[in-house]
Structures are given as structure tokens and as C-alpha cells.
Write a structure and sequence with these properties.
single chain; 254 residues; five-stranded mixed β-sheet; 11 helices; 5 strands; 51% helix; 14% strand; globular
């Protein structure tokens, strides 16, 4: 048994006999086999619906950092529902591809089965209203960045903000699950790394190439690089003309 496994076993002794305890799953890099010397041990602990509290904490056990959450079952269900609505399937991935450590009454098995079903569903597109406002937000950042560059100011803050927003927008426009920022480059460039996280729904080669150009661009090349990515993402979302933008929806009358 490795050091982190001994520490995990010792850590879990704190909870397994609690009356509210239902189960626990190991997730993150240790579950996927992608850990390195900087990795912490990620654990999701599930409790009964009547426990009346939730917790997110970190602690060291024999020098190994444990990052853990404790939630009642209904909170996990809420997070899963919200994830489906927002294209962020983090919880589904945790329960579908994590390693079940304990399952007192079969709750973890049910969450696993639910997660597998939901990951197989097609992601529903956002409304035209939502996508139009996403494109408007991208245009605003892009326009501000070009203005700053024209005036001779530093653009890096807006540049990286826009890169981040373009990644999310491309996934949303194309009904792909959103990717965690810390794993984007590895997932897109390393098929084996992506496979271990079961990330089989990823952006295509054209988007990947344009994004990597933004990551690699020198200062003088940043505007041309992000211009190409920006136009590609906007086109994938149906195009955008600021002169024709009109965001209107019904609201309740007072």
C-alpha cells in the first residue's frame, strides 16, 4: 500500500462509523491515474438527507493533502441537475469514473448509474437569447482589448480573459461539456491523458490548433492569434454582428 493510500484509509476512519455516513468516492487525478507530486487526494463523501450541513475542507494526513467535500444526497442531486443545465458535468464524472470506497446502503451505486445515464445524454443547447448575450460579451472584451492595444496599453489581462471565455463559449455553442482550465492543454494534446478522464467529447482539430496558437503566441503575435480564434468561435455560434444585436425576452409585468 502506497503512502497516499495509507493516509486515505486513516482519513476515512473519521467518518465511516458516523450515523449520517452513506459512502465515499475517490476522484480526481488519483482515481484517473494521472497524479503527480503536486496532486492532492480528492474525496467526495455522501451523507444522508437529514444531516443538515455540508462541508468543503482540506487537511494533511501524514503529510498527504486531502481535499474533500461532504454533502447530503439531495445536494449531490441538485449539483448534477445544475451541471446538466450549465454544460458542467463535474459531478457526473466524479461518480461515473471515480473509485467507490464505501457504499453503506447502495447510494453510491445509484449515483454511479445515474451519472452514466446522464453522461450518455446529448447536451441540450442554450437558448438563442443566452447564446446571443454570450457573443455580445465576447465582442465587448475583444473590442476593449483592441482599443487598449491601439492606445499602447498592456493587453494580457483581457487577452487571457478572452481566451478563457472563448473556450467556454465554443463548448457551449457546440454542446460539448465544459473543460476544467487546469486540464485543457493536457486533454487536447495528450489523448492518453484525456482517455483516463473519459473525455471523449472534445473540440475538434481546428479549434485546438487555433487555441494552441494563442497559448504559444509571442507578444507581437497575440492579436493576430486571438483574432483567428475569436472569429472561428463566433462563426461556430452562428455569427455575430454588433450592429444587429438585439437581446429581448419576455419578463413578468408588475
Amino acid at each position: 500500500m502506497q503512502k497516499w493510500e495509507k493516509a486515505l484509509h486513516k482519513f476515512m476512519k473519521r467518518y465511516v462509523n458516523e450515523p449520517w455516513f452513506e459512502g465515499a468516492v475517490l476522484c480526481g487525478s488519483y482515481a484517473a491515474g494521472n497524479q503527480n507530486k503536486f496532486s492532492d487526494v480528492d474525496i467526495t463523501i455522501v451523507g444522508s438527507d437529514d444531516m443538515g450541513w455540508q462541508e468543503k475542507s482540506n487537511c494533511y494526513v501524514d503529510g498527504v493533502l486531502m481535499e474533500y467535500t461532504i454533502n447530503p444526497i439531495y445536494k449531490i442531486q441538485e449539483y448534477m441537475k445544475s451541471g446538466l443545465e450549465n454544460h458542467a458535468l463535474v459531478n457526473q464524472n466524479m461518480f461515473a469514473y471515480g473509485i467507490i470506497l464505501y457504499d453503506k446502503h447502495g447510494v453510491m451505486k445509484k449515483l454511479y448509474q445515474q451519472s452514466i445515464r446522464e453522461l450518455k445524454r446529448k447536451i441540450k443547447p442554450f437558448s438563442k437569447y443566452t447564446n446571443d448575450f454570450t457573443k455580445y460579451g465576447l465582442w465587448c472584451i475583444y473590442d476593449d482589448m483592441i482599443s487598449l492595444q491601439h492606445e499602447g496599453y498592456q493587453i494580457d489581462l483581457l487577452y487571457w480573459n478572452l481566451v478563457n471565455r472563448l473556450i467556454t463559449a465554443y463548448c457551449d455553442f457546440n454542446c460539448l461539456p465544459r473543460m476544467p482550465l487546469a486540464k485543457i492543454q493536457k486533454m487536447l494534446l495528450n489523448p492518453e491523458y484525456a482517455r483516463r478522464y473519459h473525455a471523449d467529447k472534445l473540440p475538434g482539430k481546428k479549434f485546438t490548433s487555433l487555441l494552441m496558437n494563442c497559448f504559444d503566441a509571442k507578444q507581437k503575435d497575440k492579436i493576430p492569434a486571438i483574432d483567428k480564434l475569436y472569429k472561428f468561435v463566433m462563426k461556430s455560434g452562428g455569427g455575430f454582428d454588433i450592429g444587429q444585436f438585439r437581446g429581448r425576452r419576455k419578463i413578468e409585468k408588475r
